[in-house]
Amino acid sequence: MTKKYDQPDAMIFDMDGTLFRTETILIDAYYRMFDSLRDEKLYEGETPPVENILNSLGMLLAAIWKRVMPDASEETHRRADDLLLEYEIDELKNGKPELYEGVEETLRILKERGIRLFVASNGLEPYVKDVAYYTGIKPLFEDLYSAGEYKTASKVELVRLLLEKHQIRSAWMVGDRSSDMEAALGNNLIAVGCDYAKFRSSGELKDADLRITSFSDILNHLV
Description:
Layout: E1 10-13, E2 20-21, H1 23-39, H2 51-54, H3 61-68, H4 74-94, E3 98-99, H5 103-112, E4 116-121, H6 125-134, E5 143-146, H7 147-150, H8 155-165, E6 171-175, H9 178-186, E7 190-194, E8 210-212
Parallel strand pairs: 1-4, 1-6, 4-5, 6-7, 7-8
Antiparallel strand pairs: 2-3
InterPro entries: HAD-like_hydrolase_sf, HAD-like_sf, HAD_sf, PGP-like_dom2
GO molecular function, one term: phosphoglycolate phosphatase activity
Protein name: HAD family hydrolase
């Protein structure tokens, strides 16, 4: 039997691996970034496997670079921030960014039902806003929150700021990583685990109140 919940005032969505198929722009941007780092003499050697960054999606960039290139300098990490952002935005403009199946249609239904929609992402501000813009879903959201804009150290803190600013009484936090589940738990929200991106590590969704195997499945859990 499908577990159902009363309709919340709001739903807060992670971006990468939840709404957006990040790999549709990230892979090419990642390889371009390492080519530039080598050209600028900031990195030597082969490009680390792209799975290293795909499996780190949802983390803050500083933590991602410590995992992807742990021996590189802080200067290299900060330059990687700039280059990856530049190339990702280029790929958004000129490539073929894709949402997960059913995302736009489901978001429209939720909005029509009177649910306030937000994004909370650990990404950089221009990236988060440009993904929403170039995939056509930006008008569906009341606001877009990013760690890059608010300088938060955790998604728990980022979501708390969002809830306080918009005076939200009840909400679901929807995402695919442990940081999303922690943000829900830390703010007394319903935690919805997205079980379709496949980038996460085993056990990351163990604290989810419910799991969905397709984005549109979220509708089946509303009373």
